[in-house]
Design brief:
By secondary structure, the protein is of the alpha+beta class. The chain folds into 3 domains: 129 residues, 2-Layer Sandwich (Beta-Lactamase); 75 residues, Helix Hairpins (Orthogonal Bundle), CATH 1.10.287; 157 residues, Heat Shock Protein 90 (2-Layer Sandwich). It has 12 helices and 14 strands. The longest helix has 30 residues. The protein is elongated and about 95 Å long. The two termini are 34 Å apart.
């Protein structure tokens, strides 16, 4: 339904012509994934769809008792846009506006469209489109592009650097014979530094592996349990690890070993972010079913549903704001001793699985969220069935 047609339909509701609002139109309105509100000239909310109830976390019965200003932040640009639309009788669009409130969340970035309902100035229809999903897709495409850049760089390094390094190391070992003890320290330094560079190149060579991934039905809870045991036996001994799982979750379509690598990286980062000195250090591992996210992946003609959500949440100080947008890029790290390749590898693996990985960071609550497709057998049945 176009904005014009929608405006005409809601206009009938505002004028009390409820019979003209056919059941099929109601079905279409409630089927829209974007919040839609009908607002009278005095600011009173007259009607809304199901998505608006979800967005504002209020039922329709509650919303129609309120004014638009009651559910928006003080001085919101949306209120000014409604006034201008009523006065001018024209459609107004604005982008990336924060409608966050303590009730619905401190940050809810949306694009909005305000359309007059009629020339008489009796109200407007408002459509909101959250930027969360769109930004998520943009970030994922950026992560994939960064991974491809590292792939090309890794291939170049493997051919152009490792061979000369091998020669340098061999020459240093030959020079050790017949040298004094102090000179041997210098040749040993050469060997140690070449070994360090080779290890870095070896880590980057992982990015150049373009072989198809062998994927099958994987129980994500078994993967997370394994990661938890590894963490508690080593790098995560100083933190408490909580499990908040959805026991009815269907299996994920993935490579088990690569998922273990992904979540080991994420949990290790979380443990290091919390720090060994924290007296209340905590990491949460959560799983949930979140329908509604679809992404078109390479090699597929239609968007793939990504309903399985897995999160690693820590109560550390958070990610520095200046690197938050580039956290999954190669050589970007929040740690002084980090190489900046761990999260880039996570982004590559999840991207190869056709999924999404993202980070939301606030002081005392940093969330790494992974969205992946669920396993569907050859006969079209899921593990839940």
């Amino acid at each position: 339904m176009t904005n014009t047609a929608l405006a005409k339909t809601v206009s009938r509701v505002l004028r009390g012509e409820t019979q003209a609002f056919a059941p099929s139109a109601l079905t279409l309105l409630n089927g829209l994934p974007h919040p839609v509100l009908a607002v009278a000239a005095d600011g009173r909310i007259c009607d809304c769809n199901v998505a608006a109830e979800t967005f504002f976390e209020l039922s329709r019965m509650m919303l129609v008792r309120l004014k638009l200003a009651d559910v928006l932040p003080f001085g919101s640009p949306l209120l000014s846009a409604v006034e201008h639309a009523l006065v001018r009788g024209s459609v107004i669009n604005e982008y990336r506006v924060d409608l966050g409130t303590p009730r619905i969340g401190t940050e809810r970035i949306v694009d909005f469209n305000v359309s007059p309902l009629s020339a008489g100035g009796d109200g407007v229809v408002i459509m909101l489109q959250e930027r969360t999903i769109a930004d998520k897709m943009d970030r994922q495409l950026t992560h994939r592009g960064a991974a491809r850049s590292v792939t090309a760089l890794a291939s170049m390094l493997a051919h152009e650097i490792k061979n000369p390094l091998s020669g340098i190391r061999g020459a240093a070992q030959l020079l050790e014979h017949g040298m004094s003890e102090s000179d041997r320290e210098l040749t040993q330094l050469i060997c140690d530094e070449t070994d360090r560079i080779v290890k870095l190149v070896d880590r980057m060579e992982v990015f150049s592996d373009e072989r198809p991934i062998e994927r099958d039905s994987v129980n994500i809870h078994a993967v997370l349990d394994h990661v938890k045991r590894v963490a508690q036996a080593g790098f995560g001994r100083h933190v408490r690890i909580l499990e908040l799982y959805d026991p009815s979750l269907p299996p994920v379509l993935a490579n088990r070993d690569q998922l273990v690598q992904v979540f080991l990286n994420l949990v290790k980062n979380a443990a290091e972010a919390v720090g060994t000195d924290a007296i209340d250090g905590q990491i949460e591992l959560t799983t949930a079913f979140r329908p509604g996210v679809r992404l078109k992946t390479p090699g597929t003609n239609a968007p793939v549903s990504l309903p399985l959500e897995f999160c690693v949440i820590d109560n550390g100080p958070g990610v520095a704001p200046d690197i938050a947008e580039h956290l999954f890029d190669p050589f970007v790290s929040n740690k002084s001793s980090g190489t900046g390749l761990g999260l880039a590898l996570v982004a590559k693996i999840i991207g190869d699985h056709g999924g999404i990985v993202e980070c939301e960071s606030h002081p005392r609550r940093t969330t790494f969220r992974v969205l992946l497709p669920m396993f569907v057998s050859a006969d079209g049945r899921t593990g839940a069935e």
